[in-house]
Amino acid sequence: MKITTRIFGTLALAMLPLASKAEGIHRMEFLPDEWHLAGFENSLDLSGIAAANPQQCLVGSDESFYIQPGVIDHAKKRIESKRPIALSIQNTGKGGMEVDIEGVAFSPEDQAYYVVGSHGLGKKKGDFQPDRHAVYQVPVDQGGKVLRDKIRRTSLLPWLEKTPVLEDHVKQPLQQNGLNIEGLTYAKGKLFFGLRAPNKNGRGFVIELAPNDLFTGKPGKLQVHDISIPKGRGIREIAAVKDGFIILSGNASAEASKKIPVTMAPGPDDRFDVYFWNGTDASDCVKLGSLPQNGGKAEALLILEDMRDHVDMLVIFDGLQGGEPMTVRFHR
Questions:
Q1: Where exactly are the structural domains of the chain?
Q2: 221 to each of 118, 130, 201, 208, 311, how far by Cα in Å?
Q3: Residue 98 confidence (pLDDT)
Q4: How far apart are CA 209 and CA 191, in angstroms?
Q5: How far apart are CA 53 and CA 76, in angstroms?
Q6: Tens-digit pLDDT profile for residues 110-148
Q7: Residues with Cβ < 8 Å from 326, sequence gap 6 or more?
Q8: Which residue intervals define the domain DUF3616 in the entry (predicted)?
Q9: What is the DSSP track for 263-328?
Q10: Is the separation of the CB atoms in 328 and 10 below 8 Å?
């Protein structure tokens, strides 16, 4: 099987005609293929996945401080976990050992995965946890094996605090439109971070930054794309494909908690819509459809195949055992 683009992707259900703005995209199809993720720790909380090659991938959980390599078996439609790899963390105290991993991407140019934390406050208490504000570079060898001793850590926080459109939302509760990253992908030498929040009057945000600038550059103003997303909705995942990006949306705000009893969330976080964005035109963000409600939250996306006439991908759900992957074909 030839796999030409491999980061993480998504789509919806059924077969739907699309608007003409999404050039070359005319329908989506839910495939009967049943994939399984087996042996992963915190398998109810899988939140990010990307593949370095047809056989090796990396999986993250938003309730852990480690990453988990996986082996992909296309014939068996199975992804098998290997031994977890701990990431460097600052807080080893009670209740603080989590990075809140929200996105994983792979750069073939760098031969490295990138793993991002939410860069937001704790959802229940609204507390600042340094390890949530981390980005990791995870190099691999030519065979896709993680080089543990070469993992590097940095943070987007210094950049976020220097970016006018975002700075007022940094270190604010997610229930009140506080900044929160939930998606990550890689395309054309750049990392693209999808923001769950803020949503400003029906505009969502995608951050674009070169990996080298992030790890070796001096913090400055970020390049920020604002795209049309309904008010109260946020980017929950982003995946690069040949002709643009697939974007998954859900509630921008988190549900209320005892510490933060007031929320801007419009209702239960149980609807996940899918959009196509060409990556350059802010007005060209076309809704493709909605995922079926299955009791989980659409969270992690893996492209299986990106071909001239179609894209096959997995949608993985938080809150369901092993992510209960949904297989979708995206017809161009």
A1: 27-331
A2: 19, 21, 22, 11, 34
A3: 81
A4: 5
A5: 17
A6: 999 999 999 999 988 999 999 999 999 999 999 899 999
A7: 13, 30, 291, 314, 315, 316, 317
A8: 45-127, 145-319
A9: ----S-S---EEEEE-SS-TT-EEEEEEPPP-SSEEEEEEEEEE-SSEEEEEEEEETSGGG--EEE
A10: yes
Residue 332 has a pLDDT of 84
Residue 5: the pLDDT is 37
**What is the distance of C-alpha 225 from the center of its chain?**
16
Q: What is the largest CA-CA distance in the chain?
A: 53
Cβ–Cβ < 8 Å for 278, 262 = no
Q: Does residue 18 register a pLDDT over 60?
A: no
Q: Are 233 and 249 in contact (CB under 8 A)?
A: yes
Beta carbons within 8 Å of 224's beta carbon, 6+ residues apart? 163, 165, 166, 205, 206, 207, 208
* DSSP states along 98-119: ---EEEEEEETTTTEEEEEE--
Q: Is 143 exposed, middle or buried (0-12, 13-18, 19+ CB in 10 A)?
A: exposed
Q: What is the pTM of this model?
A: 0.91
| DSSP H or E stretch at residue 158 | helix 157-160
pLDDT above 70: residue 94: no
pLDDT tens-digit map of 300-313? 999 999 999 999 99
C-alpha atoms less than 13 angstroms from C-alpha of 232 in its C-beta half-sphere: 10
Phi and psi dihedrals of 70, rounded to 5? -140, 155
Residue carrying structure tokens 């923001």: 195
User: What are phi and psi for residue 69, nearest 5 degrees?
Assistant: -65, 150
Residue type at 91? Answer: N
In this model, does residue 13 exceed pLDDT 50?
no
Q: How many CA atoms lie within 13 A of 195 on its CB side?
A: 30
CA–CA distance from 183 to each of 7, 106, 161, 272, 279 (Å)? 11, 13, 19, 14, 15
Q: Give the C-alpha distances (Å, rounded to integers) separating 189 from 192, 213, 271, 332.
A: 10, 11, 32, 24
